[in-house]
Amino acid sequence: MLLSITNEPRDYAWGSTTLIAGLEGRAPSAAPEAEVWFGDHPSDPADVAGGGTLDAHTGGKLPYLLKLLAAAAPLSIQVHPTRPQAQEGFARERGMDAADPTRNYRDANHKPELMVALSDRFEALSGLRPLVDTKRLLASFPDTNGVIALRARLDVGSDADALRETLAWLLSGSAQAEVDDIIAALGEAQSTEFGEALSAIRQIAEHNPGDPGVVVALLMNFIVLRPGEAIFLRAGLLHAYVSGLGVEIMAASDNVLRGGLTPKHIDVTELLAIVDTEPGAVPVQRSSGAITTYDVPVADFALRRVQVDGEQRLSVAGPAMVLATSGVVAVSTAGGHALPVKIGTAVFATADERELVVRGQGEIFIAEPGRS
Q1: Using CA atoms in the order 178, 179, 181, 185, what is the torsion angle rounded to 10 degrees?
Q2: Where do the catalytic residues lie (predicted)?
């Protein structure tokens, strides 16, 4: 069975008034449009054409959540737990009210993510940069007290230990004078190698004056994705989306440990217990040909980007979703009635469906459970 599904955009403050509207070919919105959720998550299950919500058809057991995400301002720096960490944390906090803003664990699941760019430029911070590179970046800063203190802390012990201790220092509240000094020095830093990263972090500082997360951002890889390019965000990987429009898919979870660029609760102790401070580059996955299957090393979800040209038959491991992001496309089962997929909406295929027929011209994303 196929179902047409939609949802109303969530109006988080960092959302864009133009990106989702532009994708769908309508005028800018009056309020920010940050995310459109296509899933059965109890916080916001998708609406089904004809009435009701998707959870009534899935029992709330869909293993993934598919989203459109539109960032006009930086999201919080955050990290997600492994499944064992989530299970332990959820059990520990079971007695806390679900609405308690200090609660870290909303469920017992992990939350790996994949982000694919739709806009011409999608900016993200992902993972901690190799320390040798960060030291070159900081060499472009003037020798102020805060900068000197930061360089010194990054030069003690192993790279992973130095970064863990530096994160603890920055987020503890005791380093605010140094944080303010480093942010002030940011305006004087000059580097050809790190010019794009410095420009982005200056904008982050404008949105988040005095926030220690601005200095944390200096320690992270700055990544620019082009349309169809993707990054996979594993458990423990510190990250933040900065700007742009993309398709995001994740395990069905709402567990977030925040580390800056937010007025929301930051639990430094729990963050340091979850975050992986081993530095390194985060690989960018490129699009290739008419069908790109992204490398996702978890069983919760899989995602394909398909350039539709005429009629194509595609096998799926249901329950699956087809999200349209450009052109004119319709979806049917073999010999079945075709459902048009309006840009910015999706068609849901129940678990018994094993092949979908797509017709038209445009771009779609197919989400389904992982096959590994």
Answers
A1: 130
A2: 258
89: left (phi over 0), alpha (psi -120 to 50) or beta: alpha
Active site residue 258: yes
Sorted by where each begins, the domain ranges of the chain are 8-125+225-274, 131-218, 304-368
The architecture (CATH level 2) of 8-125+225-274 comes to Sandwich (2.60)
Residue stretches of the annotated binding site for Zn(2+): 78, 80, 113, 239
Q: What is the pLDDT of residue 372?
A: 57
Bond from prior residue into 319 cis (ω within 30 degrees of 0): yes
263-302 tens-digit pLDDT? 999 999 999 999 999 999 999 999 988 999 999 999 999 9
pTM for the model: 0.95
CATH class of this structure's domain 304-368: mainly beta
The sign of the dihedral angle between the CA atoms of 366, 368, 371, 372 is positive
Catalytic residue among 258, 304, 313, 354: 258
